[in-house]
């Protein structure tokens, strides 16, 4: 609400300085509220077809009916490396329930380089080799960035950066989506 109030105050100042500008605060508030509602609606995640570390392609269309955790990371990203154990745990705990944890390596060299890195850090979930286009399509502006994708290939949540309870928050999201899936089947 403070942001909206600031916008309205700013518009009031602009309108008082430029009386010829015909902007009503009510119209601006309505637009801001509409944008807030839009942000809360799940959007379809971008489609992709990317190779794994052996060269086999994975298509987002093949993941469409699953709960998917996609972690955008890079081999040179220290916080990304720190999150590997949490993603291993999520894969181990939820993989049997159909949840897919996928590491999407970008800006990290060739597949053979990433493969050595994945072995060194004992990554136990699939790794895809991403592109700058994929990074752009998913609006990734920094690493790590993690998406939780709901069935229907809808974005459920986006996490930018890292923090101590991120793994727990993603686990909560997975449980929420698993509960919704069970409820929808009943």
Tell me the radius of gyration. 21 Å
* Count of extended strands: 7
Q: In terms of structural class, how would the helical and strand content be classed?
A: alpha/beta
Low-confidence stretches: 1-39
Proportion in helices: 40-55%
Biggest sheet strand line-up? 5-4-3-6-7
Count of domains: 2
Main β-sheet description: 5 strands, mixed
Q: What share of residues are in beta strands?
A: 15-25%
Mean pLDDT: 83
Shape: globular
From N to C, what is the helix and strand string? HHEEEHEHEHEEH
The CATH homologous superfamily of the largest domain is called Glutaredoxin
CATH topology tier name of the largest domain: Glutaredoxin
- Count of helical regions: 6
CATH class of the largest domain: Alpha Beta
Terminal Cα span: 39 Å
CATH architecture of the largest domain: 3-Layer(aba) Sandwich
